[in-house]
Design goal:
By secondary structure, the chain is of the alpha+beta class. Helix content is 49%, strand content 22%. It has helices at 6-9, 11-15, 25-59, 71-111, 150-159; strands at residues 114-118, 122-123, 132-137, 142-147, 164-171, 177-186, 189-194. It has a seven-stranded antiparallel beta sheet.
Length: 195
């Protein structure tokens, strides 16, 4: 996997004033990789066509009829070029299909898992009947509900600033991301809520 420029690692810090949550270097790198892979997909046809043209140019001359070349020789040279193209095109089509699948598989792998990063949530008013807190994430403007047993709810709300809070992001196929869940770690367990 190619290295990610240092500037991309600073992206969360640069975006933080705009209200985007701090993201882990792993998430930033994975998002950058998805963007790079999408760019490769967009250029794949052009790149493979150039490779095919280069392979053909190395095998046969498709230039104009030479001054000392007979028409029969010229036509034979062009026929040879067309034959080589007919022979090489399926091979390059196969390579293109394989490369497209490899890229799409890598994008699928990167977008199918969650990426954890520190986050800060605010808890709303506890609902003792359903044993849930509504939660809000100011930096992403997301909200949801988190189940926390009554026995520890008051302690968690009181000590929330000192507890480990994590957001779980999913990378979308276009390279953007979205917050899908949050977790709050407490001595009694880690409690998760969906966005």
């Amino acid at each position: 996997m190619p290295t990610v420029p240092r500037l991309l690692l600073l992206l969360p810090l640069l975006l933080a004033p705009m209200g985007v949550a701090a993201q882990s270097p792993e998430l930033v790198q994975a998002k950058a990789r998805v963007v790079t892979l999408n760019a490769e997909l967009e250029k794949l046809d052009v790149v493979m066509d150039r490779e095919l043209a280069g392979a053909l140019a190395g095998q046969v001359d498709t230039g104009p009829k030479g001054e000392f070349e007979t028409t029969a020789e010229y036509e034979a040279r062009l026929a040879s070029a067309e034959e080589a193209k007919t022979r090489l095109e399926p091979e390059y089509q196969r390579k293109k299909t394989d490369r497209r699948k490899t890229i799409q598989d890598e994008i699928g792998t990167l977008t199918s898992r969650p990426y954890a990063a520190p986050i800060r949530i605010r808890l709303g008013t506890y609902d003792a009947d359903s044993e849930t807190f509504p939660f809000f994430v100011r930096t992403t403007k997301d909200s949801g509900t988190i189940e926390i047993p009554r026995a520890v709810a008051k302690e968690i709300k009181t000590n929330l600033p000192t507890l480990k809070q994590e957001g779980y992001w999913q990378i979308l196929p276009d390279g953007s991301d979205r917050l899908v869940a949050v977790g709050v770690a407490h001595t009694s367990g880690t409690y998760f809520g969906l966005v």
